[in-house]
Amino acid sequence: MGIALKDLTREALEAEVVRLRTVLENAGICAEQQTRRDVHQSVCRSGCQSASEADPLTLQALAAELAASQAALTSSEARQRAVFDSITELAIILTDPAGIITDWNLGAEQVMGWSASEMLGQSSELIFTETDRATGRAKQEMDDVLRHGRVTNERWHLRKGGQQFWASEAMSPLYGPNSSHLGYMKILHDHTSEHMAGRAIEESQQRYRLAAKATNDAVWDWDLNTNHVLWNDALEQAYGYPLADVDSSGDWWIERIHAEDRARIHSSIRAVIDGSGTTWTGEYRFRRHDGTYAEVIDRGQVIRNAEGEAVRMIGAMLDLTRMRAVEIALRQSEERFKTILESIEAAFAIVQVKFDADDQPVDYLFLEANPAFERQAGVDLRGKWVTEFAPDLEQFWFETYGHVAKTGEPASFENYAEAFERWFDVRAVRVGDPAERQIAILFSDVTQRRRAEERLRVSESLARENVQRVQLALAAGAIIGTWNWHLPTDRFTVDEGFALAFGLDPALGREGLSLEQIIATVHTEDREGLKAAIAEVIARGGAYAHQYRVRRGDGRYYWIEANGRVDLAEDGTPQKFPGVLIDVEHRRSIEAERDRATAALRALNETLEQRVAERTAALIQTEDKLRQSQKMEAVGQLTGGLAHDFNNLLAGISGALELMSLRLSQGRFDDIDRYMASAQGAAKRAAAVTHRLLAFSRRQTLDPRPIDVNVLMEGMTELIQRTVGPGIRVETVSGMHLWSASVDASQLENAILNLCINSRDAMPDGGRITIETSNRWLAGDIARAYDLPEGQYLSLSVADTGTGMTPAVIAKAFDPFFTTKPIGQGTGLGLSMIYGFAKQSGGQVRIDSEKGHGTQVSIFLPRYIGEATEAAAVATMTNTVPGEARGTILIVDDEPTVRLLLMDVLGDLGYTLIEAADSVSGLKVLQSEVNIDLLITDVGLPGGMNGRQMADAGREIRTGLKTLFITGYAESAAIGNNSLGPGMQVLTKPFAIDTLASRVQQMLAL
């Protein structure tokens, strides 16, 4: 026809193929395309003209031309594919419009690690980081490409295994004939090495700039070729030279070295520069801007070129004057602290608390103590345990000091020690490594003060206000002023000492002041805290104490402590607020010195950290070995139980089948039914074991629906009573206004029945079973103890008056095949099935039992917000006599034997049947015009979609399509985490023939 196929583009070739097919179809010949490389011609089954009606020569020419076009298209595709796979340094990814990967070149395999077979059909979101997936980055890129065409950027992506890499990417849309959107092409280039190297350089440069700016050293950079020196800001900060006025030559620097040091320093620097050395250090005196000299230590590093010639020198000059002054000050501080500690009247000690095996404090050892300790306590306990001196010491001291040592929470209190016959005012704080359980104690003997307070309380000769002031004075120490605030009139009167302490005119204090006048001289940093403390004590009443700084008449700020009490009327209205001021300036200084001493003691304990770390590592290794041992023990128990039960069941099935074969060969048919019943019974028991194992592992097929558990429980009462026998009384307690739960009703019935049977077996001489429901709100520690998220739960418990369980039995009660019953009387799968069912339903199960006092097993299920749609489990389908079966059923299963079974059973019932072996074939049937009344599909299917996905896709076309899922193992991702939609049901493999027939008949009748 005059067309040079080899010269056509791919789009032109595809258009030519379409044109030729149209010609053939108009001539009555259909070309059914199986793949792009194979073309078969056949006469249409319906709706086509006979091929004999067309001109044979014309048809042959058209067919030849079509074949040539197809071959050219195939060749073009092969060339493009070769180019696509030959680019190995770039990852090229093709997706459809929804972002599903349709092609994956060799470069993508090398860059990201996934093979094409692993990635085809996957979402392109798989290569994005978790952060990008959370923000919908993949969808955003596709939208940007459609709006703007080709889009480029750089970002982090993921390799197989979760490793991240930095890539530059370009993404473009793909369009077909008639501008139809075919998908996207994404090209990635791994630039991780370059990116990390660039970042390292930037970070290094930034660190250098920050270090030069932040250091107190005068950093210099000396260009030896130009004799040009650059200084950092520290030159001005440390030595007073403004950088703008500094001569940048090296001579300027040398000239400011002390004359006695200059020649030595100049010679030592030149020796390094002119020689082969790289480092230089020297100490000398450097003249400051004000003419004084600083003692400095200077360090420099020589940088040489390829010929070894020194071209640059970088160094830093540290002012030793300040360092030496600090050292002197530190020594003086330590000596002062030691003097204070030795001379103060307050007793100071460091003790180590001893704990027993239950982590309860039982003793404490005095590690350090000052002389005042012996005076205050009346005994020298340094290096001794307190119980050596006071074996009957009150438990209060152990509990208080133990709490401080364990939690790190400071404690301040006054308490009487019977063993010492004294009252002590104590402040305790934890020091050192928390693992050492050491605390520092600062206390004073306040026995005399306490006795004076007691005498004061019994004295009735003083006015109440004066009694309060004297008590506060005795409690606090050095009083410098008093106040009385009449709150209803807001009249604030103070004495002369108070007025002087606040820098006020004493005359104003006698007349009455406002709170704003009082706090005007309070330090601005302490003012808001003071206001908040006053407001808080006025609101609650009672004692008040607060420390803050006040500016006195000399303009300086001093630390004071205000102690007072707010008296409330009977109706809670605040009335009076009297109090005193205490000078705590000296005490604050002592506390600061004490804190420095504590820091020094903490430094002494730092060498202990390594030993603690080594011991911790050894303990972790031991725990890992123990967990591994326990894991292997559990695996052994599971595999042993599986082998035992399944060997027994397989023996029954195999033996029955062999006997059936033998009897059939002998012509004896009398026992065939008995052997067949035996094999079927063993198969059903094997299925039950499988279902219970799947329940324990939380992989069973569930059909959760909102139910009223009270109705379900009451409906089972008669069945449970018959099952446990007349010797056991069954009681039910229904919770009022019980919440609904979304749960598989039949599995919940099984769980209740299993628990009741266990209770029956635990009461051989009779007893009582109580089944109770209630609403529970679990929060905080209770939720964590039950291993459940905080929230609302429905609780269903089964309690008995039986023999109970030991803690060891409770610990293994949920393990599969664990049982305390004699051999042959229990499989050990009941509780494990209940545990798995509860966990898979989003809840939990817990056992509360004591040997000889019965057992209570509680199942917790999440509350369902809404009304219950079912009151009980779905009733078991009754056998239905096959009648006139009508309807078309599509059967999709990749197992030929299962398809054969379904086709034979349903075919005998008279249904019209269509079968498919994978999800793609099944979906094609659903997308066709064929009438489908019911879809029966396996959940796990080949072809890129599972059964649920195929059914959902079919429902997009056939609204309300009835679907029966058949499965023996259902992952949540396959069936879905939510309840099945209307018109959807699940049938678990293996199933009985009559159950299948009844279920199909019921669904078609709906």
Automatic annotation (TrEMBL):
PAC domain segment(s): 280-332, 544-596
CDD domains noted in UniProt: HATPase_CckA-like, HisKA, PAS, REC_hyHK_blue-like
Chain ranges of the PAS domain: 76-149, 204-276
Magnesium is among the record's keywords: no
Catalytic activity: ATP + protein L-histidine = ADP + protein N-phospho-L-histidine
Root EC class: transferase
The keyword Transmembrane is annotated on this UniProt entry: no
UniProt domain Response regulatory: residue ranges: 888-1004
Pfam families per record: HATPase_c, HisKA, PAS, PAS_3, PAS_8, Response_reg
Coiled coil: 587-625
Keywords assigned by UniProt, alphabetized: ATP-binding, Coiled coil, Kinase, Nucleotide-binding, Phosphoprotein, Transferase, Two-component regulatory system
Gene Ontology biological process terms from the UniProt entry: regulation of DNA-templated transcription
An example Gene Ontology molecular-function term: phosphorelay sensor kinase activity
Stored PROSITE patterns: HIS_KIN, PAC, PAS, RESPONSE_REGULATORY
Stored SUPFAM superfamilies: ATPase domain of HSP90 chaperone/DNA topoisomerase II/histidine kinase, CheY-like, Homodimeric domain of signal transducing histidine kinase, PYP-like sensor domain (PAS domain)
Domain of life: Bacteria
The EC number(s) this enzyme carries: 2.7.13.3
Domain Histidine kinase positions: 641-865
Stored NCBIfam families: sensory_box
Full protein name: histidine kinase
Organism: Stutzerimonas zhaodongensis
